[in-house]
Design a protein that fits this description.
By secondary structure, the protein is mainly beta. It has two helices and nine strands. The radius of gyration is 27 Å and the shape is elongated. This is DUF177 domain-containing protein. It holds the Pfam family YceD.
Length: about 180
């Protein structure tokens, strides 16, 4: 995780009995994050709104993470903006299970002081809701592979030149026909 600080929730005197729950919301001033080689900025930080519920053998945390994100378009490299509204769903066990290998995805434990750290769940929700391909607009035309012009601004002319060059070239499968003469 980039610059995510722990988001520790103290459960002391809360959620003592199965079925009890309470709501929690907050805001984190995170400047940005990276996924893979992509860097994103979070001008307004990240907000979260969760419900913690005692499920008997652990604490179930469900809710939403919201953020406005600025990045770079993957097609034309212009600035791109998108919103995150990721779902949080995390389960924190009170005690380590006897068969820990039964939990394929691993598990989280409630801390010894009856605390849970929500930063991992918030981070996962942000990353999972980040689009794999970030676009400045849905119909982004990208850059010309020949001259590098932004095709969102209009055609650059390279496509027409390439098509004409192909027609005039000897590699065109119909090139042998261009010198064909018909006698009438």
């Amino acid at each position: 995780m980039d610059a995510m600080k722990p988001v520790v929730v103290d459960l002391a005197d809360r959620l003592e009995n199965p079925g009890e729950s309470f709501s929690l919301n907050g805001h984190l001033d995170i400047p940005g994050y990276t996924t893979g080689e992509k860097e994103f900025s979070l001008p307004g930080g990240v907000s979260y709104d969760v419900v913690l519920t005692n499920a008997g053998d652990g604490i179930l945390v469900t809710g939403l993470v919201r953020a406005a994100v600025d990045g770079q378009c993957d097609r034309c490299l212009d600035p791109a903006h998108f919103d995150i509204a990721g779902e949080i769903e995390e389960y924190y066990l009170f005690h380590e299970p006897e068969d820990a290998e039964a939990y394929e995805d691993g598990f989280e434990l409630v801390g010894p002081e009856r605390t849970v750290d929500l930063s991992g769940a918030i981070w996962d929700a942000m990353v999972m809701d980040t689009p794999f391909v970030v676009l400045c607009r849905p119909d982004c035309a990208g850059l010309c592979p020949t001259c590098g012009a932004n095709l969102n601004d209009g055609p650059c002319g390279c496509e027409e030149k390439a098509e004409q060059a192909w027609i005039d070239s000897d590699e065109n499968p119909f090139a042998a026909l261009k010198n064909l003469k018909f006698d009438e």
